[in-house]
Write a structure and sequence with these properties.
Helices cover about 75% and strands about 0% of the residues. The chain has one domain: Up-down Bundle (Amino acid/polyamine transporter I), CATH 1.20.1740. It has about 450 residues and is mainly alpha-helical. It contains 18 helices and no strands. Helix 2 runs antiparallel to helix 11 and helix 8 packs antiparallel against helix 14.
Amino acid sequence: MTTPPRKQPPPPGAAEALPGDALVLRAAEESLAGRRSGLRRFTPFLGPAFIAAVAYIDPGNFATNMAAGAEYGFLLVWVILAAVLMSMVIQSLSAKLGIASGLNLAEACRARYRKPVVFGLWGQAELVAMATDVAEFVGAALGLYLLFGIPLLPAAIITAVASYAILAMQARGFRRLEAIIAGFVGVIVVAFAVQVFMAKPSAGDVASGLVPGFDGTGSVLLAVGILGATVMPHVIYLHSALTQRRVPVSDPSAKRRLFRFELVDVVIAMTIAGLVNLSMLVIAATVFNKAGMTDVGDDLSQVYEGLGSVVGGNADVLFGVALLASGLSSSSIGTLAGQVVMEGFLKRRIPVWLRRAITMAPAFVVIALGVDPVLALVISQVILSFGIPFALIPLLHATADRKLMGTLVNRRFTTIVGIAIAAVVIALNTVLLVLTFGGA
């Protein structure tokens, strides 16, 4: 009589997980143990960076990238490339912090800094969350207006209801939420891929934008806006929370293997986000800048109409669908990030519906007052850019601490690269202030 095979115990945390999440945990355990091969070994780890990537292709990107391409052509292509490379470094550090320490960035800050610093970081993080919501809500509402003619205020209410529905999916397992967000990303990618094909940009023109340079205060403002729209402070906090307990491991070697898998997730997701951002600028430069329509990017409604009249083939509808998908998905991610920030810094958790209501209130005020939607989008992205150092510097401080990070502590080169990124962002913001208020 043969002895039946012994049933393997579930990995830590699987007992409490919902069925879909428990399956991911078991698959991740098999990959870490070397029992899965080929592409299958990576699939359990794909997800966290894709959730973070939604923030890198939110409606603020539409405003800054389209404005940059229409007004300056291919001049700022290099800014997008630099922002994508920065995002890969930053998000990998954030993911690594959660894996190595079991803490998210907000929790690490609370444990390491004095109360005045903690409250200061929390306060600016909340302001960043509100600026984020302005971009996301205005963008989604504008998408509904462009596609269906719904006025902005009712469209914002529809956006709020839809974002609540998306967040409700989390109650059925985080893997389901990851799948929904990945679906939105897929819609955006397809929409812009088709638009690029229809616009037929020149590879030589795109390559000409790889040489760093500016052309006056306006180009610096848009460069800072692109950085603010592409490197998002709130997902620096969120990504560490997404990895801190997703696949629980305690062995140092297992943590190193887990981080290598998560690094693949980061590279794939950030590359996709970067290509979407690049396609926005390239479309605007090819369609509008070359035709002398340099002010079209200042109004996404004009972008929508221009794509329909100049490119045709329902390019305008594709743009509107991508804008709507971006606003709906990114608004939900902003709420998750807000929860992480408040709970991490203050040890306080409020209901998701209340959190959603607080952060979206400024967006409703902006829409109700009739503020120009694109102006609101661009300014919100500049505010976000000023928030990057307040998340990045604590992240570098934490991930360079061997006691906290163990074997996953930053190498000296990694820390130097991170410091260089922070210095570039701070320098651009300083130059912007001088040019704007110094009479230059």
